[in-house]
Design brief:
Helix content is 42%, strand content 6%. It is mostly helical. Among the domains are: 134 residues; 50 residues, no CATH class. The protein has a three-stranded antiparallel sheet with strand order 4-3-8. The chain has a three-stranded antiparallel sheet with strand order 5-6-7, with no helix packed on it. Strand 1 and strand 2 form a beta hairpin. Helix 4 packs antiparallel against helix 5, helix 4 runs parallel beside helix 6 and helix 5 packs antiparallel against helix 6. The chain is rod-shaped, with a radius of gyration of 40 Å. It is found in: Cytoplasm. Pfam families: ZnF_RZ-type. Keywords: Cytoplasm, Immunity, Metal-binding, Zinc, Zinc-finger.
Length: 436
Protein backbone atom coordinates (compact mmCIF):
# COMPACT_ATOMS: atom_id res chain seq x y z
CA UNK A 1 0.00 0.00 0.00
CA UNK A 2 0.99 3.63 -0.30
CA UNK A 3 -0.05 6.80 1.46
CA UNK A 4 -1.96 9.60 -0.18
CA UNK A 5 -3.69 12.70 1.06
CA UNK A 6 -7.45 12.28 1.37
CA UNK A 7 -7.32 8.54 2.01
CA UNK A 8 -10.01 9.03 4.66
CA UNK A 9 -13.12 9.88 2.62
CA UNK A 10 -15.04 11.40 5.52
CA UNK A 11 -16.29 14.95 4.93
CA UNK A 12 -18.38 15.34 8.08
CA UNK A 13 -17.86 15.00 11.82
CA UNK A 14 -20.04 11.89 12.26
CA UNK A 15 -18.74 8.72 13.88
CA UNK A 16 -17.38 6.33 11.22
CA UNK A 17 -19.76 3.44 10.64
CA UNK A 18 -18.84 1.97 7.24
CA UNK A 19 -22.38 2.26 5.90
CA UNK A 20 -22.57 1.87 2.14
CA UNK A 21 -24.90 4.22 0.30
CA UNK A 22 -25.42 3.19 -3.34
CA UNK A 23 -27.31 6.38 -4.24
CA UNK A 24 -23.95 8.17 -4.51
CA UNK A 25 -20.78 6.87 -6.21
CA UNK A 26 -18.60 6.51 -3.12
CA UNK A 27 -18.60 4.78 0.24
CA UNK A 28 -19.91 7.22 2.83
CA UNK A 29 -18.15 6.34 6.09
CA UNK A 30 -20.50 8.07 8.48
CA UNK A 31 -23.70 7.34 10.35
CA UNK A 32 -25.60 9.98 8.38
CA UNK A 33 -25.47 7.57 5.42
CA UNK A 34 -28.37 5.71 7.05
CA UNK A 35 -30.68 8.46 5.89
CA UNK A 36 -32.33 7.81 2.51
CA UNK A 37 -31.81 11.46 1.62
CA UNK A 38 -28.96 12.24 -0.85
CA UNK A 39 -25.66 13.11 0.81
CA UNK A 40 -25.40 16.91 1.10
CA UNK A 41 -21.75 17.15 2.14
CA UNK A 42 -19.28 18.91 -0.07
CA UNK A 43 -17.80 16.78 -2.86
CA UNK A 44 -14.17 15.94 -2.08
CA UNK A 45 -13.15 15.22 -5.68
CA UNK A 46 -9.97 17.16 -6.39
CA UNK A 47 -6.38 16.81 -7.49
CA UNK A 48 -3.33 19.13 -7.51
CA UNK A 49 -3.64 19.81 -11.26
CA UNK A 50 -7.34 20.71 -11.47
CA UNK A 51 -9.72 22.86 -9.50
CA UNK A 52 -11.74 21.35 -6.67
CA UNK A 53 -15.34 20.33 -7.37
CA UNK A 54 -17.83 22.94 -6.09
CA UNK A 55 -20.88 20.66 -5.99
CA UNK A 56 -22.48 18.65 -3.23
CA UNK A 57 -21.72 14.95 -2.91
CA UNK A 58 -24.97 13.79 -4.58
CA UNK A 59 -24.81 16.34 -7.44
CA UNK A 60 -23.12 15.98 -10.82
CA UNK A 61 -19.43 16.79 -10.38
CA UNK A 62 -18.15 19.93 -12.18
CA UNK A 63 -14.49 18.81 -12.17
CA UNK A 64 -13.38 16.79 -15.19
CA UNK A 65 -11.39 13.59 -14.52
CA UNK A 66 -7.63 14.12 -14.58
CA UNK A 67 -5.66 12.00 -17.08
CA UNK A 68 -2.23 12.71 -15.57
CA UNK A 69 -0.34 9.79 -13.98
CA UNK A 70 -0.45 9.50 -10.21
CA UNK A 71 2.78 10.83 -8.65
CA UNK A 72 2.78 8.48 -5.66
CA UNK A 73 4.97 5.42 -5.18
CA UNK A 74 4.53 2.12 -3.40
CA UNK A 75 6.02 2.01 0.10
CA UNK A 76 7.69 -1.38 -0.26
CA UNK A 77 9.13 -1.51 -3.77
CA UNK A 78 9.23 2.24 -4.43
CA UNK A 79 7.83 1.64 -7.95
CA UNK A 80 5.49 4.32 -9.34
CA UNK A 81 1.71 3.99 -9.00
CA UNK A 82 -0.09 2.77 -12.15
CA UNK A 83 -3.18 4.88 -11.43
CA UNK A 84 -4.26 8.41 -12.31
CA UNK A 85 -4.13 11.67 -10.44
CA UNK A 86 -7.16 12.20 -8.20
CA UNK A 87 -8.23 8.55 -8.33
CA UNK A 88 -7.92 5.79 -5.79
CA UNK A 89 -4.54 4.08 -6.27
CA UNK A 90 -4.60 0.50 -7.64
CA UNK A 91 -2.97 -2.01 -5.24
CA UNK A 92 -0.98 -3.76 -8.02
CA UNK A 93 2.52 -2.81 -9.17
CA UNK A 94 3.35 -2.84 -12.90
CA UNK A 95 6.67 -4.62 -12.21
CA UNK A 96 6.04 -6.70 -9.11
CA UNK A 97 2.51 -7.82 -10.08
CA UNK A 98 2.84 -7.79 -13.88
CA UNK A 99 1.31 -11.25 -14.44
CA UNK A 100 -1.73 -10.56 -12.28
CA UNK A 101 -2.15 -7.05 -13.69
CA UNK A 102 -2.19 -8.22 -17.32
CA UNK A 103 -4.06 -11.53 -16.97
CA UNK A 104 -7.28 -9.82 -18.08
CA UNK A 105 -6.99 -8.31 -21.57
CA UNK A 106 -9.82 -5.89 -22.38
CA UNK A 107 -8.67 -4.27 -25.65
CA UNK A 108 -4.99 -5.19 -25.49
CA UNK A 109 -3.46 -2.04 -23.96
CA UNK A 110 -2.67 -3.70 -20.65
CA UNK A 111 0.94 -4.58 -21.57
CA UNK A 112 1.87 -1.07 -22.80
CA UNK A 113 4.64 0.51 -20.72
CA UNK A 114 2.62 3.68 -20.18
CA UNK A 115 -0.70 1.92 -19.56
CA UNK A 116 -2.71 3.40 -16.71
CA UNK A 117 -5.29 1.54 -14.66
CA UNK A 118 -8.43 2.47 -12.76
CA UNK A 119 -9.20 0.58 -9.55
CA UNK A 120 -12.81 -0.61 -9.10
CA UNK A 121 -13.29 -0.81 -5.34
CA UNK A 122 -16.59 -2.73 -5.64
CA UNK A 123 -14.86 -5.83 -7.00
CA UNK A 124 -11.18 -4.88 -6.44
CA UNK A 125 -10.20 -5.33 -10.09
CA UNK A 126 -7.79 -3.09 -12.02
CA UNK A 127 -8.92 -2.23 -15.57
CA UNK A 128 -6.87 -0.38 -18.22
CA UNK A 129 -8.23 3.18 -18.22
CA UNK A 130 -8.53 3.87 -22.00
CA UNK A 131 -10.59 0.73 -22.48
CA UNK A 132 -12.61 1.49 -19.37
CA UNK A 133 -13.31 5.06 -20.51
CA UNK A 134 -14.68 3.78 -23.82
CA UNK A 135 -16.76 1.13 -22.08
CA UNK A 136 -18.28 3.57 -19.58
CA UNK A 137 -19.24 6.02 -22.35
CA UNK A 138 -20.94 3.37 -24.48
CA UNK A 139 -24.74 3.52 -24.65
CA UNK A 140 -26.54 0.63 -22.97
CA UNK A 141 -29.33 -1.29 -24.69
CA UNK A 142 -31.22 -1.59 -21.41
CA UNK A 143 -31.57 0.76 -18.45
CA UNK A 144 -29.28 -0.37 -15.65
CA UNK A 145 -25.93 0.11 -13.97
CA UNK A 146 -22.55 -0.48 -15.59
CA UNK A 147 -20.69 -3.60 -14.49
CA UNK A 148 -17.06 -4.58 -14.22
CA UNK A 149 -16.06 -5.93 -17.67
CA UNK A 150 -14.12 -8.69 -15.97
CA UNK A 151 -16.45 -10.07 -13.27
CA UNK A 152 -19.73 -8.22 -14.00
CA UNK A 153 -20.00 -6.78 -10.50
CA UNK A 154 -22.10 -3.58 -10.51
CA UNK A 155 -19.95 -0.45 -10.37
CA UNK A 156 -21.25 1.79 -7.61
CA UNK A 157 -18.10 3.53 -6.44
CA UNK A 158 -15.64 5.30 -8.73
CA UNK A 159 -14.39 8.87 -8.58
CA UNK A 160 -13.49 8.96 -12.27
CA UNK A 161 -16.89 7.73 -13.47
CA UNK A 162 -18.96 9.40 -10.77
CA UNK A 163 -21.14 11.44 -13.16
CA UNK A 164 -21.86 8.43 -15.36
CA UNK A 165 -22.78 6.34 -12.31
CA UNK A 166 -25.02 9.10 -10.95
CA UNK A 167 -26.87 9.45 -14.25
CA UNK A 168 -27.33 5.71 -14.64
CA UNK A 169 -28.61 5.48 -11.08
CA UNK A 170 -31.09 8.28 -11.71
CA UNK A 171 -32.35 6.45 -14.80
CA UNK A 172 -32.79 3.26 -12.78
CA UNK A 173 -34.49 5.18 -9.95
CA UNK A 174 -36.92 6.77 -12.42
CA UNK A 175 -37.87 3.37 -13.81
CA UNK A 176 -38.27 1.94 -10.31
CA UNK A 177 -40.48 4.84 -9.24
CA UNK A 178 -42.64 4.34 -12.31
CA UNK A 179 -42.91 0.60 -11.65
CA UNK A 180 -43.23 0.68 -7.85
CA UNK A 181 -45.03 4.01 -7.53
CA UNK A 182 -44.57 6.87 -5.10
CA UNK A 183 -44.20 5.39 -1.56
CA UNK A 184 -46.29 8.09 0.16
CA UNK A 185 -49.06 7.81 -2.43
CA UNK A 186 -49.02 4.01 -2.18
CA UNK A 187 -49.42 4.23 1.59
CA UNK A 188 -52.32 6.70 1.31
CA UNK A 189 -54.13 4.51 -1.22
CA UNK A 190 -53.59 1.39 0.90
CA UNK A 191 -55.12 3.12 3.93
CA UNK A 192 -58.10 4.23 1.82
CA UNK A 193 -58.68 0.70 0.47
CA UNK A 194 -58.41 -0.64 4.02
CA UNK A 195 -61.02 1.79 5.36
CA UNK A 196 -63.41 0.85 2.55
CA UNK A 197 -62.83 -2.83 3.23
CA UNK A 198 -63.48 -2.79 7.00
CA UNK A 199 -66.80 -1.01 6.37
CA UNK A 200 -67.96 -3.91 4.20
CA UNK A 201 -71.12 -5.64 5.42
CA UNK A 202 -69.71 -9.11 6.00
CA UNK A 203 -71.69 -12.19 5.03
CA UNK A 204 -71.63 -14.80 7.79
CA UNK A 205 -70.79 -17.38 5.11
CA UNK A 206 -67.49 -15.67 4.14
CA UNK A 207 -66.67 -14.12 7.51
CA UNK A 208 -63.58 -16.26 8.06
CA UNK A 209 -62.05 -15.37 4.67
CA UNK A 210 -62.80 -11.66 4.94
CA UNK A 211 -61.43 -11.48 8.49
CA UNK A 212 -58.27 -13.21 7.30
CA UNK A 213 -57.58 -10.46 4.75
CA UNK A 214 -58.50 -7.82 7.33
CA UNK A 215 -55.91 -9.17 9.80
CA UNK A 216 -53.23 -9.21 7.12
CA UNK A 217 -54.06 -5.65 6.06
CA UNK A 218 -54.10 -4.43 9.67
CA UNK A 219 -50.49 -5.53 10.20
CA UNK A 220 -49.50 -3.55 7.11
CA UNK A 221 -51.41 -0.50 8.41
CA UNK A 222 -49.41 -0.70 11.66
CA UNK A 223 -46.17 -0.76 9.64
CA UNK A 224 -47.30 2.37 7.79
CA UNK A 225 -48.07 4.17 11.07
CA UNK A 226 -44.66 3.27 12.51
CA UNK A 227 -42.96 4.32 9.29
CA UNK A 228 -44.56 7.77 9.41
CA UNK A 229 -43.27 8.55 12.89
CA UNK A 230 -39.77 7.25 12.15
CA UNK A 231 -37.01 9.89 11.72
CA UNK A 232 -35.83 7.98 8.66
CA UNK A 233 -38.98 6.57 6.99
CA UNK A 234 -38.55 4.02 4.25
CA UNK A 235 -41.04 2.79 1.62
CA UNK A 236 -42.84 -0.38 2.72
CA UNK A 237 -45.56 -0.67 0.07
CA UNK A 238 -44.83 -0.75 -3.62
CA UNK A 239 -47.22 -0.59 -6.55
CA UNK A 240 -47.38 -4.39 -6.86
CA UNK A 241 -48.32 -4.94 -3.22
CA UNK A 242 -50.91 -2.17 -3.40
CA UNK A 243 -52.44 -3.66 -6.54
CA UNK A 244 -52.49 -7.14 -4.98
CA UNK A 245 -54.44 -5.91 -1.94
CA UNK A 246 -56.81 -3.99 -4.21
CA UNK A 247 -57.51 -7.14 -6.24
CA UNK A 248 -58.02 -9.22 -3.08
CA UNK A 249 -60.36 -6.60 -1.63
CA UNK A 250 -62.45 -6.22 -4.79
CA UNK A 251 -62.76 -9.97 -5.41
CA UNK A 252 -63.84 -10.73 -1.83
CA UNK A 253 -66.38 -7.90 -2.03
CA UNK A 254 -67.84 -9.39 -5.22
CA UNK A 255 -67.95 -12.86 -3.66
CA UNK A 256 -69.69 -11.40 -0.63
CA UNK A 257 -72.32 -9.77 -2.88
CA UNK A 258 -72.76 -12.95 -4.92
CA UNK A 259 -73.56 -14.93 -1.77
CA UNK A 260 -75.98 -12.38 -0.30
CA UNK A 261 -77.57 -10.73 -3.36
CA UNK A 262 -80.03 -13.48 -4.33
CA UNK A 263 -82.56 -15.44 -2.32
CA UNK A 264 -81.27 -18.97 -2.65
CA UNK A 265 -82.79 -22.05 -1.12
CA UNK A 266 -80.70 -23.89 1.46
CA UNK A 267 -79.47 -26.43 -1.10
CA UNK A 268 -78.44 -23.82 -3.67
CA UNK A 269 -76.92 -21.50 -1.05
CA UNK A 270 -74.67 -24.24 0.32
CA UNK A 271 -73.30 -24.91 -3.17
CA UNK A 272 -72.79 -21.20 -3.89
CA UNK A 273 -70.96 -20.69 -0.57
CA UNK A 274 -68.78 -23.76 -1.11
CA UNK A 275 -67.73 -22.49 -4.54
CA UNK A 276 -67.18 -18.95 -3.18
CA UNK A 277 -64.90 -20.28 -0.43
CA UNK A 278 -62.81 -22.15 -3.00
CA UNK A 279 -62.29 -18.91 -4.95
CA UNK A 280 -61.55 -16.96 -1.74
CA UNK A 281 -58.89 -19.48 -0.67
CA UNK A 282 -57.20 -19.02 -4.03
CA UNK A 283 -57.28 -15.23 -3.66
CA UNK A 284 -55.88 -15.34 -0.11
CA UNK A 285 -52.93 -17.55 -0.99
CA UNK A 286 -49.60 -16.39 0.43
CA UNK A 287 -48.29 -15.14 -2.90
CA UNK A 288 -47.41 -11.51 -3.56
CA UNK A 289 -49.64 -11.01 -6.60
CA UNK A 290 -51.39 -12.47 -9.62
CA UNK A 291 -50.13 -12.66 -13.17
CA UNK A 292 -52.49 -11.56 -15.95
CA UNK A 293 -53.77 -15.06 -16.66
CA UNK A 294 -54.46 -15.83 -12.98
CA UNK A 295 -56.32 -12.57 -12.47
CA UNK A 296 -58.41 -13.10 -15.61
CA UNK A 297 -59.22 -16.64 -14.48
CA UNK A 298 -60.24 -15.59 -10.95
CA UNK A 299 -62.37 -12.69 -12.18
CA UNK A 300 -64.06 -15.10 -14.59
CA UNK A 301 -64.86 -17.53 -11.76
CA UNK A 302 -66.33 -14.71 -9.69
CA UNK A 303 -68.58 -13.77 -12.63
CA UNK A 304 -69.54 -17.43 -13.09
CA UNK A 305 -70.65 -17.83 -9.46
CA UNK A 306 -74.04 -15.98 -9.52
CA UNK A 307 -74.83 -17.67 -12.84
CA UNK A 308 -74.28 -21.04 -11.17
CA UNK A 309 -76.71 -19.83 -8.50
CA UNK A 310 -79.35 -19.14 -11.17
CA UNK A 311 -78.60 -22.48 -12.84
CA UNK A 312 -78.91 -24.51 -9.63
CA UNK A 313 -82.05 -22.59 -8.66
CA UNK A 314 -83.68 -23.47 -11.99
CA UNK A 315 -82.68 -27.10 -11.59
CA UNK A 316 -84.18 -27.30 -8.11
CA UNK A 317 -87.30 -25.55 -9.43
CA UNK A 318 -88.01 -28.35 -11.91
CA UNK A 319 -86.79 -26.77 -15.14
CA UNK A 320 -86.53 -30.25 -16.65
CA UNK A 321 -90.33 -30.29 -16.83
CA UNK A 322 -90.27 -27.57 -19.51
CA UNK A 323 -88.81 -28.76 -22.85
CA UNK A 324 -88.58 -25.21 -24.24
CA UNK A 325 -86.70 -24.01 -21.15
CA UNK A 326 -84.35 -27.00 -21.28
CA UNK A 327 -83.20 -25.91 -24.74
CA UNK A 328 -81.92 -22.67 -23.19
CA UNK A 329 -80.40 -24.57 -20.25
CA UNK A 330 -78.40 -26.80 -22.59
CA UNK A 331 -77.09 -23.74 -24.45
CA UNK A 332 -76.07 -22.15 -21.14
CA UNK A 333 -74.28 -25.33 -20.02
CA UNK A 334 -71.92 -25.18 -23.01
CA UNK A 335 -70.07 -22.25 -21.41
CA UNK A 336 -71.14 -22.52 -17.77
CA UNK A 337 -69.76 -26.04 -17.30
CA UNK A 338 -66.70 -25.62 -19.52
CA UNK A 339 -63.12 -25.47 -18.18
CA UNK A 340 -62.29 -22.39 -20.27
CA UNK A 341 -61.55 -19.02 -18.71
CA UNK A 342 -64.96 -17.39 -18.32
CA UNK A 343 -64.95 -14.35 -20.60
CA UNK A 344 -67.33 -11.36 -20.73
CA UNK A 345 -68.88 -12.79 -23.90
CA UNK A 346 -69.58 -16.08 -22.11
CA UNK A 347 -71.14 -14.20 -19.18
CA UNK A 348 -73.54 -12.42 -21.53
CA UNK A 349 -74.49 -15.59 -23.42
CA UNK A 350 -75.07 -17.69 -20.30
CA UNK A 351 -77.01 -14.89 -18.61
CA UNK A 352 -79.22 -14.50 -21.67
CA UNK A 353 -79.99 -18.23 -21.90
CA UNK A 354 -80.67 -18.62 -18.17
CA UNK A 355 -82.96 -15.59 -18.19
CA UNK A 356 -84.86 -17.06 -21.13
CA UNK A 357 -85.28 -20.35 -19.27
CA UNK A 358 -86.29 -18.47 -16.13
CA UNK A 359 -88.96 -16.54 -18.01
CA UNK A 360 -90.44 -19.75 -19.37
CA UNK A 361 -90.48 -21.36 -15.93
CA UNK A 362 -91.50 -18.31 -13.97
CA UNK A 363 -93.42 -16.00 -16.30
CA UNK A 364 -96.62 -16.61 -14.34
CA UNK A 365 -95.00 -14.68 -11.50
CA UNK A 366 -95.75 -17.46 -9.00
CA UNK A 367 -93.75 -20.33 -7.60
CA UNK A 368 -93.98 -23.97 -8.60
CA UNK A 369 -95.85 -24.90 -5.40
CA UNK A 370 -98.29 -22.02 -5.90
CA UNK A 371 -99.05 -23.20 -9.44
CA UNK A 372 -99.81 -26.71 -8.20
CA UNK A 373 -102.11 -25.32 -5.49
CA UNK A 374 -103.98 -23.14 -8.02
CA UNK A 375 -104.51 -26.03 -10.42
CA UNK A 376 -105.78 -28.28 -7.63
CA UNK A 377 -108.04 -25.58 -6.20
CA UNK A 378 -109.64 -24.94 -9.60
CA UNK A 379 -109.80 -28.68 -10.31
CA UNK A 380 -108.36 -28.06 -13.78
CA UNK A 381 -106.98 -30.86 -15.85
CA UNK A 382 -103.97 -30.91 -18.16
CA UNK A 383 -104.51 -28.79 -21.27
CA UNK A 384 -106.76 -26.20 -19.55
CA UNK A 385 -104.16 -23.42 -19.34
CA UNK A 386 -103.43 -20.95 -22.16
CA UNK A 387 -101.67 -17.62 -22.78
CA UNK A 388 -102.91 -14.46 -24.48
CA UNK A 389 -100.83 -12.80 -27.27
CA UNK A 390 -98.94 -10.88 -24.56
CA UNK A 391 -98.12 -13.99 -22.50
CA UNK A 392 -100.71 -13.55 -19.73
CA UNK A 393 -102.13 -16.92 -18.52
CA UNK A 394 -105.80 -17.85 -18.46
CA UNK A 395 -107.72 -21.09 -17.92
CA UNK A 396 -110.69 -22.71 -19.62
CA UNK A 397 -112.95 -24.57 -17.23
CA UNK A 398 -115.28 -27.37 -18.17
CA UNK A 399 -113.79 -29.61 -20.84
CA UNK A 400 -110.78 -27.32 -21.07
CA UNK A 401 -111.24 -26.58 -24.77
CA UNK A 402 -111.75 -23.15 -26.34
CA UNK A 403 -115.51 -22.58 -26.63
CA UNK A 404 -115.86 -18.78 -26.50
CA UNK A 405 -113.92 -15.57 -27.18
CA UNK A 406 -113.28 -13.22 -24.27
CA UNK A 407 -110.82 -10.53 -23.17
CA UNK A 408 -107.62 -10.88 -21.16
CA UNK A 409 -108.03 -9.40 -17.68
CA UNK A 410 -104.48 -8.03 -17.85
CA UNK A 411 -104.26 -6.35 -21.27
CA UNK A 412 -107.67 -6.65 -22.93
CA UNK A 413 -106.42 -8.81 -25.84
CA UNK A 414 -108.79 -11.38 -27.31
CA UNK A 415 -108.49 -14.82 -25.72
CA UNK A 416 -110.12 -18.20 -26.13
CA UNK A 417 -111.74 -19.45 -29.35
CA UNK A 418 -114.71 -21.37 -30.70
CA UNK A 419 -115.48 -25.01 -31.40
CA UNK A 420 -112.33 -26.12 -29.53
CA UNK A 421 -110.20 -24.02 -31.92
CA UNK A 422 -107.86 -21.63 -30.08
CA UNK A 423 -107.34 -18.16 -31.57
CA UNK A 424 -104.23 -18.04 -33.76
CA UNK A 425 -102.34 -15.61 -31.51
CA UNK A 426 -103.13 -17.55 -28.31
CA UNK A 427 -100.97 -20.47 -27.12
CA UNK A 428 -100.89 -23.26 -24.55
CA UNK A 429 -99.27 -22.61 -21.14
CA UNK A 430 -97.34 -25.88 -20.91
CA UNK A 431 -95.57 -24.81 -17.74
CA UNK A 432 -98.85 -25.26 -15.86
CA UNK A 433 -99.68 -28.56 -17.55
CA UNK A 434 -96.45 -30.19 -16.35
CA UNK A 435 -97.42 -29.46 -12.75
CA UNK A 436 -100.54 -31.64 -12.82
Amino acid sequence: THVRIGEDDRTCDCIPDGVYLPSIPHTCLCRCARSPEPCKWQCHKDCPRKQKCTKKCHEMCDREPCDQPCSLRFKKCKHPCIGLCGEKCPPLCRICNKEKLTEFQFIGNETDEDARFVYLSDCKHCIEVKAMDQYMKMEMEEIGMKKCPRCHTVIWSSMRYGNIIRQLYRNVAAVKEKAFGDPKQNQDEFLKYFQDFIQLGVSSHLQQEIKSLERSAKSKVEEIKQCRVSPHPHPIIDQFELLFFKHQKEILEKLNRAVTAQHYGISVLSRVVRRAKTIADRVLSGRRGFNDWELESIVGEVARLPLFGMYWKLQDGGVNRFPEAMEHIRKAEVHLLSLETFSDTMVEEVHRELNAASRICGELGISKQERIMISKAMNLRQGSWYKCPNGHPFANSGCGGAMEVSKCNECGAKIGGTNHQLLDDNSRAGEMDYLQ
